[in-house]
Design brief:
The complex is a heterodimer of chains A (about 325) and B (about 375). Chain A has 12 helices and 14 strands. Chain A has about 325 residues and is of the alpha/beta class. In chain A, strands 6-7-8-3-9-10 form a 6-stranded mixed β-sheet, sandwiched between helices. A 4-stranded antiparallel β-sheet of chain A has the order 2-1-4-5, covered by helices on one side. The longest helix of chain A is centred in the middle third of the chain and has 18 residues. Chain B has 2 domains: about 230 residues, no CATH class; about 100 residues, abc type-2 transporter like fold (3-Layer(aba) Sandwich).
């Protein structure tokens, strides 16, 4: 879904955030369409949270403009706050309060009328599967349940636009998938526009209609997950290892249908970038059989957002995560590659 | 209003879910009241006084009789007989006895001859409380011995007649005012200062800031909640402390109302002060680090432990701007003197004014963004 100026729920134009001489966000421009799930993808420190904090009025904009639901975040912050729901990165529900009390306090902060407050809380608890925990103190909930509570808390005043800053960070894979399903369901049932920051490729791929890749404060790519993957040269990767090495292999492999590049990795192992993985694989097997060559191993991978990220930023997203926490992990001889 | 009350509701629910927090905020003042109230201000009892009698005649016998009278009545000290002055001095030095009286040889003869005899008193003046008490007791004894047997019909010496307005005030009662103020200070420090910064660090305030709540609603909500916590703490300590100290003033409706006014004004003043100090603080360690310093800086110059009039000028200057001073003065006026509204009017005006002024300064400093 592409946003157009007329129906854009969020319109960000040349937005900049400066801290002294340091530019955390550098002239970023994008639009998010009504009802769209829009992902901001990037490593830690890329500027995702800064962007979301400017759009949610938490930090002032240095220059540029952000319009949320038709309201300028710098000029009409209160109007913006009334129509948005925000889930911050940290779990900020009160652990001493019950699930219902947490929702009730936030409904009051948004001045939701009493009758509507009760109805909203009941519906949301049902939607996030916490009805039977409504009287439980938040400190007794698991991480996944607390995250679901926070999602319900952000929706207690029926916002039009929902901002989620890394909503699944710290969750186990099962809880993560549960949160994705819940968000997708809520988007449809509440007709929400969602803006999600994440550094999980899989999350962005599964959940988002469009993805903006942010790196060093800049927006380096923006499109649907499919289009982003298609934009990368060689949409599939075929890895093949033969029993015998031959000087002819690179030239022969390059002649296979769809192949755009061949890389040798030694020990008769080759990596082929191809626009048509299945056809290339079929031809590769036929060629090996006709030459009496045995294929030791063969794998076909479709292009992932990891590849897209590498393509646009020149490095692995996962490497960046490791670097970000690297100071906590002293090197151990047994763990060295 | 709904939004402000939502903040108050959240704070109070958290407060009542943490009874340990309430206990902690009252523990320090209560312990202080019990320990300091009993440790200081009491009269010396059961000291050991060595007596070296080189006379052993009729007039020294009078002194022994007076000592026996002290031992069974006022019980300031009991006597330990010594035959050697050097040994008695050594025992005072080493702390085996608290003082020694030396009755010289020929004492009785010189008394009867009107030859101004002297009785020696050896005290350990490194302990001012003990030595002053023994000196005072011995001075009374000597005055009594000097009094003529037959009183003059017209007394020519000048006498001082002391009129005490109130019954004897034990130190625990004197200390109670400071303890009540301290309980409110601790409640504000923990409930208002530390938890406020902890919430900031945990991102709870980030949650508030994305809602349409205004800066004023947020500030008033946080301060109203803090004031309620401090009032609860103040009321609890006033009641418990008054019962422990044996003060029945809390059962008089007018005095109880004045106490409530003082507790309310003190809570507002302390909250405003704490909020102003913490409004831009982000690090949760800071309120913990300054807790002791602030306690010393505000509590001790207030007159809670000893009168402000005895302070050097620079300490008096601190006392003048210290809300503790006015709180302690007000509580003393009601708890110990039944002074009425007139006695605490200045205190109430200062405390309410201080609280409002600090809030007025703090509100614009409160950041509506991160």
């Amino acid at each position: 879904m592409n946003a157009s100026a007329s129906n854009a729920a969020i319109a960000v134009e040349n937005i900049v955030k400066r801290y002294g001489d340091f530019e955390a966000v550098k002239e970023v421009t994008f639009e998010v369409g009504d009802g769209e799930i829009f992902g901001l993808l990037g490593p830690n420190g890329a500027g995702k949270s800064t962007l979301i904090r400017m759009m949610t009025t938490l930090i002032p904009v240095s220059s540029g403009k952000a319009i949320v639901a038709g309201h300028d975040v710098s000029r009409e912050p209160d109007a913006v706050r009334r129509v948005i729901g925000v889930i911050p990165q940290a779990l900020t529900s009160d652990i001493d309060l019950t699930v219902e009390e947490n929702l009730s306090i936030y409904a009051k902060l948004y001045e939701v009328p009493k009758a509507e407050r009760k109805r909203n809380i009941d519906e949301l608890l049902e939607a996030v599967d916490l009805t039977k925990w409504r009287g439980a103190q938040t400190k007794t909930l698991s991480g996944g349940m607390r995250r679901r509570l926070e999602i319900a808390r952000g929706l207690v005043h029926n916002p039009r636009i929902f901002f989620l800053d890394e909503p699944t960070t710290g969750l186990d894979p099962v809880s993560r998938v549960a949160v994705w399903e819940m968000l997708d369901h809520l988007r449809k049932s509440h007709h929400l526009t969602m803006l999600i920051t994440t550094h999980y490729m899989e999350e962005a791929d599964n959940l988002c209609d469009r993805i903006a890749i942010v790196d060093h404060g800049k927006l380096v790519a923006l499109d649907t997950p499919m289009a982003l993957k298609a934009s990368v040269l060689g949409t599939n990767v075929v890895e093949a290892q033969f029993t015998h090495e031959s000087d002819e292999w690179p030239a022969r492999l390059k002649q296979l249908a769809g192949v755009t590049a061949v890389e040798s990795h030694g020990s008769a192992m080759y990596k082929l970038l191809t626009a048509d993985g299945s056809l290339t694989t079929t031809q590769l097997v036929e060629m090996a059989v006709s030459r009496g060559e045995v294929i030791k191993s063969l794998s076909v991978q479709t292009t992932t957002l990891d590849d897209v990220f590498v393509h646009y930023t020149g490095r692995q997203l996962r490497d960046e995560q490791v670097k970000a926490v690297g100071f906590m992990m002293p090197p151990r001889p047994g763990m060295q590659p | 209003m709904t939004r402000m009350m939502a903040i108050v509701e959240r704070e109070m629910r958290k407060f009542f879910r943490s009874p340990a927090l309430m206990m902690v905020s009252m523990a320090l003042p209560l312990v202080q009241l019990i320990i300091l109230g009993n440790a200081f201000g009491g009269k010396i009892r059961g000291a050991r006084m060595g007596v070296v009698d080189y006379d052993r005649e009729s007039q020294s016998l009078k002194i022994h009789e007076a000592f026996d009278s002290i031992a069974v009545n006022i019980r300031t000290f009991t006597t330990v007989p010594y035959s050697d002055e050097q040994q008695a001095r050594e025992d005072v030095r080493t702390g085996k006895i608290d003082g020694a009286v030396i009755i010289p040889a020929q004492y009785s003869r010189r008394v009867l001859a009107g030859d101004s005899p002297a009785i020696g008193l050896v005290v350990d003046n490194s302990d001012q409380t003990m030595s002053s008490s023994l000196e005072a007791e011995m001075q009374s004894l000597v005055d009594a011995l000097n009094a003529p047997v037959i009183q003059q019909r017209v007394v020519q010496s000048i006498a001082l007649e002391i009129v005490e307005l109130y019954p004897y005030v034990e130190y625990m009662k004197y200390l109670l005012s400071g303890s009540v103020a301290l309980a409110m200070y601790v409640a504000v420090m923990i409930g208002g200062g530390m938890l406020y910064i902890d919430d900031k660090a945990r991102g709870v305030h980030e949650g508030y800031l994305v809602t349409p709540i205004t800066r004023l609603e947020l500030v008033l909500g946080l301060n109203l909640a803090g004031t309620i916590k401090a009032v609860l703490s103040g009321v609890c300590l006033t009641v418990i402390g008054s019962l422990m100290a044996g003060l029945g003033v809390i059962f008089h409706p007018e005095s109880a109302l004045l106490l409530l006014l003082l507790i309310l004004s003190t809570s507002i003043a302390f909250n405003g002060m704490m909020f102003l100090m913490m409004v831009r603080v982000e690090d949760p360690l800071i309120p913990r680090a300054i807790f002791g310093v602030l306690n010393t800086l505000l509590f001790f110059p207030s007159g809670a432990i000893s009168p402000v009039t005895g302070f050097p000028p620079w300490l008096k200057a601190i006392a003048v701007i210290d809300p503790f001073t006015y709180a302690v003065h007000g509580f003393k006026a009601v708890l110990l003197k039944d002074g009425g509204l007139t006695a605490i009017r200045t205190d109430l005006i200062f405390l309410f004014g201080f609280g409002i002024a600090t809030l007025l300064v703090a509100t614009p400093l409160f950041k509506r963004t991160l």
